[in-house]
Write a structure and sequence with these properties.
Layout (H helix, E strand, L loop, with lengths): L3 E7 L7 H11 L4 E7 L2 H9 L6 E6 L4 H6 L2 E2 L1 H6 L4 E5 L2 E5 L2 H12 L9 E5 L3 H12 L5 E4 L3 H11 L3 E4 L4 H6 L1 E6 L23 E4 L8 H8 L3 E3 L1 H17 L7 H12 L1
Parallel strand pairs: 1-2, 1-3, 4-6, 7-8, 7-10, 8-9, 10-11, 11-12
Antiparallel strand pairs: 3-5, 5-6
Helix pairs in contact: 5-6, 5-10
The protein binds NADP nicotinamide-adenine-dinucleotide phosphate.
Amino acid sequence: MSTRAACVVGWPIKHSRSPLIHGFWIRKHGLDADYRREAVEPEAFADFIRNLPARGYVGANITIPHKEMALELSEPDDRARAVGAANTLWLDGGRLRSTNTDVEGFTANLDDAVPGWAARPGEALVLGAGGSARAVVYGLIERGIGTINVVNRTIDRANELQRRFGTVVRPAEWDALPNLLSNAGLLVNTTSLGMTGQPPLGIDLKSLPVHAVVTDLVYAPLKTSLLAAAEARGLAIADGLGMLLHQAVRGFELWFGVRPQVTAELRKLVENDLTK
Ligand code: NAP
């Protein structure tokens, strides 16, 4: 049998850690498989995806700026359709199917880091209303969270999330934060604030209840100042690297037929790469 191959498609693509993650699992499971980077400009994307099998691929991860186009070019599952973006494609017979694995990356990371998080009391408070916030909100809805406050600089984008997902989403302005924090059982940062090279997030966590869980999608730096402040208060945390690793699991399983594990060894490998 010939080598099964998948790839990550983006523009640019150099920064992607996906080859490191999938390469680790390919070696771990001793598979005759390959995972490559593909730099594809927006104008060439549709052609590239339509010819995925001819290029020798059984599937692909899709990253910026192609996730919306990938949705249009494939048969999405409920998650990809609800989020409005596809980040994982696979060939199923002659069909090109897609999903959005950020949804399960987000919830599986919380399950791993803070078992039972979804049963803790309080509302969810999501900072940001961009692409990753859509996946986070959908994941929270899947897990039965009843109130999801979404605070965003541009309130129209938070309103758009309510139109997409219904009244479980409550859009709010930044100045509502002190009140919202005191009712929160889960705080999620989906903005790029706090990322290396971006402005700091700078919110005061003192009114968060003691049982609150704090998670940050930003993974560079690994320990953001939000997570450091939460830890200093003794709150449970889950970091962005965990989500990045967990979101990769489903694609690997779909392409190569083995469900891989997110282990301490894999985490260390990617941590070393991020900090070098
Ligand atoms: P996006 O669609 O561009 O959304 C960015 C969000 O950040 C928007 O809500 C935006 O608010 C807000 N924002 C940006 N600059 C701001 C500022 N100066 N003040 C206030 N708000 C600001 O990006 P995304 O795809 O959602 O990604 C967001 C972050 O999540 C990135 O750091 C990304 O690396 C990370 N991420 C991590 C994972 C993971 O697996 N760990 C997965 C996906 C994304 P406006 O709407 O007002 O512009």
